Amino acid sequence: MLIFTRKVFRSIKHIFMTKKICFFLLIALHIGCKSVTVNNQLQRTTTAPVELGTIGLHEDYYPYDRFTITTTPKLDRKVRVKAVKHTFNKRKFNAYENTSPYNRMQLQYIDSLPDKPEYIALELIDHVNHTAMLNEDPDLLDYLKTRTGAFMVTSVAAALHGVHVQAISNAESVFLVYDPDISKYYLEINNRDKTILKVRMEDMDIFAYGLSFFCWGENPRHRLEIKDIVEEDQRCPAGTYKKASKVKKKVNYFKL
């Protein structure tokens, strides 16, 4: 009877482990099918609207992987953007076609031809200035404090019309700018001849994006504030926390 029980237990354990392995393989396959590598970083592909600099909620449980924009932070200063031109490969072009089924940018990818269409990778790189501006908005801080599932879109891969691709790749500098009249961002392209070009978010088809989360700490007055913006596969710096609730709230009323 004891031997029979052990055999049954081993069989159940084997079935459980097999199902567990299959489940993780499915998740890995799901992630692999819905991601591309841009600037040596893994980005999620998307068919839903995504904009650089926006904040939203991310659903990341199998079989769902969705990002929903909830707010566009108001910025009174520009944020520096790293812009790099890349050539499409077949996988990335398929991601673009899924985003833009009518091929709004009129791009053509032919395996047998050496010349391939190009796209632009954009990444927010001025986290110090950016974080300072976010901390100036008390309503935004109150919103983020209770939402550990909130992320910011800090990098994107986008298809644009050829004239915009060349302008961005040849630019002296690129910035993310907030337009208070429409509560949206646009790209400010500063050319070497001192002219300025504006590229709206509607002028690009974003087919992949990268997310970052917020690390919390105390300011000198022991108030909660955002200390850093960190890519989702990284950890918060020492002394800061992803959950605002973990930060020790020691208010020094003599400094108020």
Note down, in words, how this protein is organized:
The protein is α+β, with helices and mostly antiparallel strands. The protein has two domains: 2-33; 41-255, no CATH class. The chain has five helices and twelve strands. The protein has helices at residues 2-33, 90-99, 127-135, 138-145, 162-169; strands at 35-38, 41-45, 55-61, 64-71, 79-87, 118-124, 150-160, 173-179, 184-190, 196-200, 204-218, 224-231. A hairpin with a 5-residue loop joins strand 9 (184-190) and strand 10. It is globular, with a radius of gyration of 23 Å. Residues 18-33 and 250-256 have low confidence and may be disordered.
The major pleated sheet works out as:
12 strands, antiparallel
Uncertain parts: 18-33, 250-256
Order of helices and strands: HEEEEEHEHHEHEEEEE
Strand content: 35-45%
Q: Compute the gyration radius: what is it? A: 23 Å
Shape: globular
Mean pLDDT: 86
Total number of strands: 12
- Amino-to-carboxy terminus distance: 74 Å
Tally of alpha and pi helices: 5
Q: Which structural category do the helix and sheet elements fall into?
A: alpha+beta
Give the number of domains. 2
What share of the residues lie within helices?
A: 25-40%
